Automatic annotation (TrEMBL):
<dbReference type="InterPro" id="IPR016163">
    <property type="entry name" value="Ald_DH_C"/>
</dbReference>
<keyword id="KW-0547">Nucleotide-binding</keyword>
<keyword id="KW-0028">Amino-acid biosynthesis</keyword>
<dbReference type="InterPro" id="IPR000965">
    <property type="entry name" value="GPR_dom"/>
</dbReference>
<dbReference type="GO" id="GO:0004349">
    <property type="term" value="F:glutamate 5-kinase activity"/>
</dbReference>
<dbReference type="InterPro" id="IPR005715">
    <property type="entry name" value="Glu_5kinase/COase_Synthase"/>
</dbReference>
<dbReference type="InterPro" id="IPR020593">
    <property type="entry name" value="G-glutamylP_reductase_CS"/>
</dbReference>
<dbReference type="Pfam" id="PF00171">
    <property type="entry name" value="Aldedh"/>
</dbReference>
<keyword id="KW-0808">Transferase</keyword>
<dbReference type="InterPro" id="IPR019797">
    <property type="entry name" value="Glutamate_5-kinase_CS"/>
</dbReference>
<keyword id="KW-0418">Kinase</keyword>
<feature type="domain" description="Aldehyde dehydrogenase">
    <location>
        <begin position="323"/>
        <end position="588"/>
    </location>
</feature>
<dbReference type="Pfam" id="PF00696">
    <property type="entry name" value="AA_kinase"/>
</dbReference>
<dbReference type="InterPro" id="IPR001048">
    <property type="entry name" value="Asp/Glu/Uridylate_kinase"/>
</dbReference>
<comment type="subunit">
    <text>Can form homodimers/multimers.</text>
</comment>
<dbReference type="InterPro" id="IPR005766">
    <property type="entry name" value="P5_carboxy_syn"/>
</dbReference>
<dbReference type="InterPro" id="IPR001057">
    <property type="entry name" value="Glu/AcGlu_kinase"/>
</dbReference>
Amino acid sequence: IRCWSNIPFITMPLSRAHGKSFAHRSELKHAKRIVVKLGSAVVTRGDECGLALGRLASIVEQVSMLQNQGREMMIVTSGAVAFGKQRLRHEILLSQSVRQALHSGQSQLKDMAIPVLEARACAAAGQSGLMALYEAMFTQYSICAAQILVTNLDFHDEQKRRNLNGTLHELLRMNIVPIINTNDAVVPPPEPNSDLQGVNVISVKDNDSLAARLAVEMKTDLLIVLSDVEGLFDSPPGSDDAKLIDIFYPGDQQSVTFGTKSRVGMGGMEAKVKAALWALQGGTSVVIANGTHPKISGHVITDIVEGKKVGTFFSEVKPAGPTVEQQAEMARAGGRTLAALQPEQRAEIIYRLADLLTDQREDILLANKKDLEEAENKGRLALPLLKRLSLSTSKLNSLAIGLRQIAASSQDSVGRVIRRTRIAKDLDLEQVTVPIGVLLVIFESRPDCLPQVSALAIASGNGLLLKGGKEAAHSNQILHHLTQEALSTHGVRDAVQLVNTREEVEDLCRLDKLIDLIIPRGSSQLVRNIQKAAKGIPVMGHSEGICHVYVDTDASVEKVTRIIRDSKCEYPAACNALETLLIHRDLLRTPLFDQIIDMLRVEQVKIHAGPKFASYLTFSPSEVKSLRTEYGDLECCIEVVDSVQEAVEHIHKYGSSHTDVIITENEKTAEFFLQHVDSACVFWNASTRFSDGYRFGLGAEVGISTSRIHARGPVGIEGLLTTKWLLRGDNHVVSDFSEHGSMKYLHESLPLPQRNAS
């Protein structure tokens, strides 16, 4: 409920005391009072004559959404000159055509020259129309807007400042969005050297300086400056080496090269930066972003307020370590050096890491104990996640064994020749394995994942960015320190980086120029979110692990309960645990079926009945809500099928292409199942839990992939490699192979070099 103020506006604070701006983007979601500055390039059309109505409507929608969330929104807008220009051109054309028709007696129009229109006249003609447009748009969201025109004199005159300040406060109190603009109809031409007048005063010569002055006067939490560029660049935008500056700090002006000013409007990027720094000094956070890009303009304002990585964020707090972009570049450079090492040197690094895991066991377990205690005190983690978070001596020993397996198998991974072809005489082609580049691995509650993935990245010569969950911060920190200690053995410490900044996962997924592959390790929800957020970066993984076990009529009584128990109960939270049990119809009401049910009851597995299974029972367990459910706990679905063919069809319809099993003694039935089930892993008379890189002999895995491109199933070293082609010639040109050329293609397959026996 908003109340009317009983305080006369004359007593409102005249200037903002130096407050504290937000230090991180993630804090912007707490911004209460926000100024949105719309540059001329954002509001006007490309022909500079008229308004960009679609863009303006989208901006109004976003502002309305934030206003209806209880925030106090203000808009500093351009556009009056462009709108007035459109109206005056129309009026002049109409007037000239009438005069011409009267003079000549003809109604046919001839080419008419449009005189140069004076900007102040255009502003006078356009102000009312611009405001009427804003009012019509805001009315669609049940929001009232009010117009305020100001000039530089309004901030220098004490009484006018009081009046302006009080008016704005009252409008905000009544849930009205003030639309503020410089009164271009009367404003004098800008003075070239009156931009900044010291610390406490900024000259209002354009809407950038107006927005900054207003933001500080009104104690605004956030100023969003929308222009026609993405933000600040370290070189002029459009140049080959230009990189967007994510966070800009006071004193960084020397590192920025300013380009030309906007195609319309009075303020260039240099004016925006000066205004932004002045507002930041006054305690207002600032973001400069692109408001014209068709792909992001529809949500640019709300994205900024949500803390997403959009545009350039101005901050007074400089982080102690490198930015995530710098970490990615360090990982790429380190990865290239790593790939250039001898295979024995990469293996030495992994062996050293395995030794450190056992030598530093006590320190690792102490750090892990801190994570467990904090997680239990906060009570945020479910029991399965707490189990994943926990490390033990046996886990560390298993990790060390797995790492040594990786080291032993990595001797011939990078640079292996997999194809040789003689294209022509003295022209030989080779296809060799190479690293993918920079991997981003995002994992939850699994500190043991860090050394596993690091070892695989080292063995395959890839740079690595790691983003772990906050719940495992202490464990991840010490494990990463040990990884870098091992990497230092051969001077490649930077090849593996742990992201400790407050980067949102969604922002990391946008670094398509720095990251080559994303590998999520965690819940199905995490994987789905990453697959949705990834922009131009491939994601390796699976969103769900809906694994099936089909019990055939020829199944062995001894094997059935043993395999089902292991598949479901050994680790029910694992992605390769049984979720749906398919039983042949002929096995219902048999001793084997009773044994299965009794075993599940003893193991306290909650049973959900599929539709067909429920139809056979008088009193059935709770009917399943969906046959496409990953329980991740001591629960499973039982469904009935009439044949192995129907079992295959059920798996294709409701499965997730992860791991599926048949239990049968009939080899023909088993082979049919193995050949026809289209999943990453298909087993015969073996537990679903064997779907694991360590158990496959890969040493470890970065995850299990259900995608159909590149790697499938448990992904080890091989899945982290790609190939490149090496062609060795001697003055060969394609024209020699033309119809009348002197050369002929041979395309002979050549023998491969012998692989390292180790």
